[in-house]
Amino acid sequence: MDGGSKCPRGQLLHLDVCVDEQKPRGGVLELLGRLRPQWKPQDIKMKVFTEGITNQLMGCFVGSLQESGAVLVRVYGRMTELYVDREREVEMFQILHTHNCGPQIYCSFRNGICYEFVRGTVLDDTLLTQPAIYRLIATEMGKIHSIKLESDNPVENILWKKMAQFLKLVHNALSNTTAPHSSKLLQEIPSIETLADEMETLKRHLSQIGSPTVLCHNDLLTKNIIYDNKEGMVRFIDYEYADFNYQAFDIGNHFNEFAGTSDTDYSLYPRPELQRDWLTAYLESYKHSVGLEATVTELEVQKLYVQVCKFSLASNFLWGLWAILQARYSSIDFDFERLSGFGTGLGTPVFNRNDFWCNKNN
Known about the structure:
single chain; alpha+beta; seven-stranded mixed β-sheet; three-stranded antiparallel β-sheet; 11 helices; 12 strands; globular
């Protein structure tokens, strides 16, 4: 190892180490030699977390994983640099940690990052519908959405830029007819022109419905929620896509995740009664965090409810494009083509246009 260097943004330590995806232990021990020099290599245990569908994640510890001092080592997935801004991810880590909404990031290395282990367990899908749990999630999201940057410059909403980036990458990936999966994908998904038209329809209408731009997680599936039963709290992890976005997108995206990822079932999408209770808890947290009277009216809940219904379609569209890219490039064993929903009717705006116009007219 050639040592470490500081990067200008937030003075984060960078270590010139590359961790082998297939045989990670050697590289991980090299990283821990700098981060935890008091640990003896023979005492270090590693637990590989299998929930992730983009990156490889390992928990490193001496004694118990739940004890303080444990380190998470994340090795970036293959070709993810095409659509993930790694510098922005680090910045989001630092911002959320500063506001007590995220773990400390310890260092970056050539193909990943190391950060603080968040004590608790990954939230089980079945807990999403329990009021005590979903109100904790709504409250935490309200806190994050209230975070303001110490800058006079207006924040940039990244949704349409990110969506256009994904669409361009999909076009490039499918243009390579010799690539694995490409012939199957070309048969199943709509044309690039159709997808571009759908994106413009979403942009034209959703940009006008008044959802504020806030700091969002943007990828709040259950595997990115850590539940600490002893403390009665939840924390959000994984900030690859965190950035400023529409408030209703972040909520609608989370509601979509009720349907799951590996075995997607949209009958599990939250019922209106649950959504309204969730949104009430969210608005109470958000208004309190920004210094407003925390009383929430039915009119406020109804307005946000309609906005969230509409933006849930933009979420489906974005992650449908993402899943095509993963199917093309990822080395992780997962059925991304099915997750994309294209060709299966599982929930992209191409197949939900009637629902969109129904929500638009409400």
